[in-house]
Each structure stands twice: as structure tokens, then as C-alpha cells.
Amino acid sequence: MDSKVSASRRPLGAALILLALAGCAGGATRPAEAPAPAGGTAAPAARVMEVPQLVGFEKAVAAQTRQRNGQPGPRYWQQWADYRLEAELNPISKRITGHGTIKYQNRSPDTLAEVYVQLLHNIFSPGARHDTNVPWAVEGLELDKVAAQGTALTAGNDGPGYQVDGTMMRIKLPRPIPPGGSADFEFNWRLRVPPDGAPRGGQDGEVWFISYWYPQMAVYDDVNGWQTDQYYGNAEFYMGYGNYDVALTVPAGWLVTSTGTLQNPEEVLTPQVRARLDSARSAPGIVRVVGEEDRGAGKATTTGTDGELTWRYRAENVRDVSWATSSKYLWDATSAAVGDADGDGKPDTARVESFWRPEMRRSHWDESARYGRHSVEFFSHFLWPYPYPHMTVVDGPTSCGGMEFPMMTCIGGQWDTLSMYEVVTHEIGHMWFPMMVGSDEKRFAWMDEGFTQFDQSQAMDDFFKGYDDEAENRQPYINLAVAGGEVELMHHGDRYPSYNAYATASYYKTATVLVALRGVLGRDLFRRAFTEYGRRWEFKHPTPWDFFNTVEDVAGRDLSWFWRPWFFETWKLDQAIDTVAPVGDSLEVTISNRGKAPMPVHLVVTRTDSRADTLDIPVSVWFDGTKRTTVRVAREPAVRTIEIDPGREFPDVDRSNGVWPR
Ligand SMILES: [Zn+2]
């Protein structure tokens, strides 16, 4: 999610030069940097700094499901589910009636006597605990039928049956599922679509964005087993992968868009609409598939039976399905060039679509398909090709803000051109993290929000030709770091003391820390490591250690000194130029590390003839606890300024002491 965050940022507002080593890091002996950790299951080598480890991760390494070099292990496994879901929307009663079956495959080496199922809609149950705003008294998900392995179950504690605790349901199975076995589940349910004001979906009387609307298998993974954290509203989700066949019944004349590929276009769309949609594959611009005058049954959609139409979708290898419907939507479509997504050596395309109301033109929705196309193309190039059949930007209730779903976004509220592009590109960025790289958003929000915030900045720089969105992330982090009240990144998303502390850590600081990592590794190596992490864990469940280990593996360096301060602590960076004194034909520059975080020093010396040299002082000068180091630079030609990190790669909290003369 994003919009609360972007709305709170203030628009704010870099020089980098050549060459290394006119001086040396005088005096201090530098310990050689420790070698990168070995791959496989070997014990970790001694590190410069201790990085907290997770017991479950160590067990996973021992079980060979993960490796210390950041790759999935030879015995990596992951659960799988095939969903067949039906939903019928009654817009008068605002209810959805649902029916679904799930075939759950146990690919773990464990015998499962019970399973956990997420009922995320229960955040709307009367009295439900939540840490974000939720409309008053909506209703939870009403279960009319729960069956497992062909046996109807009742709620209860004894024997096979189910128990609902908030947003989590536990099912004690009639028969345990052995390793390699599977179990079938069946559910009938009803829910009321929440009004505007609900987080991440709902209806405002015109548009209906249907999210978290069905019983969904919780994640059982190799590190933690069942992840049964409640959904309280602030922290997001952890979801497993599966295939979905979905049948959505709505009034005829209402347009539908969903995660997945429409299976029955000839049943629900008129020939004119299908022809326009086809033309979007090759037309250079944006195709208006349904305009204002085309809306309604018999024009946009077929006339249906008894005033209803059933739209059928199939989605493969996704972690969720959401959908939206409205009688008011316009429909735009275009095509994005994504590169070779399927590995057959030929370039592929994905359809980019937008569903929006004409009244929302003031929020630049008429540009949304173009913004979406740029985003999909940019990330396909910057990261890796977008693999899904479509990416659709959806105008939703205001309280959606900006929210991502597989192949879909729900965007609500008012936007100017800059913020509209920003929210579109941010939510589309989430298709990579966490939709493809399926991390646990609740426990490690930075793994999807921070990475996406960083990616958003790269897309904005490209789209707005040099717009410095990285500065927009850095400043709120520095503000909180200086003011106090910062909480470390490795912190459960529902356990921050304030939304500001959560957002600063998960979005801004993480994005800023990635910029710093890029400064440490250099652009090419950083991008290689970042992408390699994503490709290794595409459609899998990485932990933070898989990210740390992959970066070290690709970089061939121990970076424990980087992970510890920036992810596990709230240590600050404050590098200062203490003194500049003439010594013979040199100037001796004394630099102190006034913060706790050790970082390399990028020192730029600019002379009166405008020549500028960069001296890189390696981070290892600080490893023995030294707080002060000196370098010497030539006295002539005369030095005009000496400045630490004028390119602002590192988030120094006090830049006023990093420049000479003051
Ligand atoms: Zn986000």
C-alpha cells in the first residue's frame, strides 16, 4: 500500500566525479575485508559484525531447503493450491454469495493433521481488533458450509472441525495429509462488501473493488511452518501461490476486470468491444475499448440471462485474486513491450488496461493507461520481464489509496499528474515485490514496500527525466532519525508504535538504504545483485537472510557491517570533516565518524581550477572502533572546497559538518 505515504511527502528538491586515490586513509591500519560466506550448508565464516540469525532459517539451511549463499536449497519446497471460486454480487443488498473448492497439495516433508485458512474479510467482524481505520460494523465472512476431505465440518474443539479466531481459521482434518498428498476443501459463504472507508477495497455506490473475499490457505513454509498472524489492517499479507478458476456473476452491462485471463469474452463482450480490445495489441496509442456512449448491456456487454452475466477468469501462479466491477467504467487498453518473458527468445507483450469513471479525469485517469504502460515497460527492463497476461489500473473507492493485487491495482482519491504517475508506478512495481517475489509482508514490510519505493524512484527518474524521487525518500527518514522515535526495519508491521515509524522504516528508510547499498557496490553490481535476488526467489518465499546472502554472494563480499546498522539497528550515519591543516606540501584532512553506522567515506576535493577528485576511504577504517581518520591531499592547485558525499548516496543526518570550509 502506498497512498497515505506519498501524500505525506513534501516535494523537495547531486555531482559525481571520477578518479580515485590521490591520498590514502592515513594512519589507521585496515583489516582486510572478510571473504564472502561459503555457499551450501557450510557454517558461516567469521563476519566483521554480528548479524542476528533466525532459528528457523538455520533449520532450513540444515534441512537443505535454503543455502547460505542466498539460493533456494536442493530440497526447497513450497505448498500449492488450486482454487475454483464462484461469486455472485447483488448490488442492492451489497452482498456477495460465494462458493469455492480448494485442492491443497502438501509438498512439505511433514504430515499435516491440521491446516490454517485465512478469512481476511473478518477484519470487518463486529468487535474485530484492528490497527487501521475500518468502517463501523460491516460484518465478517459468514460461513454456510465448511467441508474437508469430503466431510462436512462444524465449528468445535473436539475431533475434526474448524475454529475461527479473528481472520484465521484452523481446520482439524478428518485425516492427516501425508507428504506429497493433497486434500480437498469446500466452502459456501456470504459477505457484505464494505463501504468506502475500508482498507484496500470496497464500494462507493458506483465502483466495487472486491478484495480478500474468499477463504484462502495460509502459508506453511520451510522456515516457520504455519504463519498464522492475524490481519489487523496495517501490516499486509503473506500468501502462497496457486492457480485460480473464477466465475463472477454481476448485473449485465457492468464491466468486470479481474486477476487472470478472461475465458469467455464472446459470452460477455460485444463484437465491437472484442475488436477494439484486439486492436490494442498492435495500435501504437491508447485504445478506448469502452467509451461513455458505449456503456451498458447490449453495448459494452452482451445482454445476459435474467439481467446477469458470468465472467470467467483463469489466473496461473498468483498469490491472490481480486476483481472490480461497475456500470460506470470506461475501459482503456494498450500494450507493453516486456522483453522475453517466457524464455523462448522472442519479445513478449502484456496488455495494460485502465478502468475508470469519466468524473475521475481530473485525477488524470485519462493518462493512467499510458502511465501503466511506461511502468510495466520500465520495470521489465530494470528488473525482469513482466510475466502475466495483463496489468490493469482500476479506479476504486477513495480509501483504496493505492493498493496492489496480482495484475491489478486499486487506486482511489485525488491526484495531480506527478502523484498519479507515482501511485500507478508504485503499485505496478509491487508486481515484482511481493507479487512475484513472495515475501512475508507482515513481518518484513521493507522487503516489498521499501524495494518498491526504491523501484518507484527509478521509474520516476526515467519518466520525468531526472526527477529526484530518492531525495523524497531520504528526507522523511532523516527527519525521524534526527527527531528520535525511529524503529528498526526488522520489526513486525503491526508492532510499530506509530504509522510514521512504520512507514519511515518500511518505505523511506529502506529505499534510502538501497541507494546507500548502490553507493557501496556501484550501480552495475548493485543492480545485478538486486535482480539476482529477485530471480532466485521469483514465485517463492524469501526471508531477509536470503536477500542479504544473495547480495553478498553476487558481490563476493562480507556486508555484515552494512546489514547490522541499517536493518537491525537504528544507528545513524554522521561523517564530519573535523580539521583541514597544512602539512608540508599537503593538506591533512581529519574525518570523524560521529554516528554509530560505519560507512565508506566519499570525499570530493574541488580546486580553484574547478578540477574535482574523489577519494574513497574504505569502510574498514572504522572496523576496529576508530572514530577518526586522516587523509592527505595535495595543497596545490589551491583547494576551494572539500565535501563528504556531495552526491548524497549515503543518508548522513548532518551534512553541515561534512563540508570545508564551513
Ligand atoms: Zn506499496
Q: How much strand? A: 25-35%
Q: What integer value in Å does the Rg equal?
A: 27 Å
Kindly report how far apart the N and C termini lie.
42 Å
The count of strands amounts to 32
Task: Give the strand line-up of the largest sheet.
Answer: 6-5-9-3-2-15-19-17
Arithmetic mean of pLDDT: 93
Fill in the keyword field for this structure.
662 residues; alpha+beta; 8-stranded mixed beta sheet; 6-stranded mixed beta sheet; 23% helix; 29% strand; binds zinc ion
Account of the protein in words:
This protein has 662 residues and is of the alpha+beta class. The protein contains 13 helices and 32 strands. The strands form seven sheets. Strands 6-5-9-3-2-15-19-17 form an eight-stranded mixed β-sheet. A six-stranded mixed β-sheet has the order 18-21-22-23-25-24, with helices on both faces. Strands 1-30-27-26 form a four-stranded antiparallel β-sheet, with no helix packed on it. A hairpin with a 2-residue loop joins strand 5 and strand 6. Helix 8 packs across helix 10 (499-521), helix 9 packs across helix 10 and helix 10 packs across helix 11. Mean pLDDT is 93; it is low at 2-40. Bound molecules: zinc ion. Zinc ion (ZN) binds next to helix 8. Residues 1-2, 426, 430, 449, 452 line the site of zinc ion.
In short:
This protein has 662 residues and is of the alpha+beta class. It has 13 helices and 32 strands.
List the helices and strands and how they pair.
Layout: H1 3-8, E1 25-26, H2 55-62, E2 80-90, E3 95-105, E4 112-118, E5 142-148, E6 151-152, E7 161-165, E8 168-177, E9 182-192, E10 202-203, E11 207-210, E12 216-217, E13 220-221, E14 225-226, E15 242-251, E16 255-258, E17 261-262, H3 265-268, H4 271-279, E18 287-290, E19 308-318, E20 323-326, E21 330-339, E22 348-356, H5 368-382, E23 390-395, E24 402-405, E25 408-411, H6 417-429, H7 431-436, H8 449-463, H9 469-483, H10 499-521, H11 523-536, H12 544-555, H13 560-568, E26 575-583, E27 586-593, E28 601-607, E29 612-617, E30 628-634, E31 639-644, E32 659-660
Parallel strand pairs: 2-15, 22-23, 23-25
Antiparallel strand pairs: 1-30, 2-3, 3-9, 4-8, 4-12, 5-6, 5-9, 7-8, 10-11, 11-20, 13-14, 15-19, 16-20, 17-19, 18-21, 21-22, 24-25, 26-27, 27-30, 28-29, 28-31, 31-32
Helix pairs in contact: 5-6, 5-8, 6-8, 8-10, 9-10, 10-11, 11-12
The structure holds zinc ion.
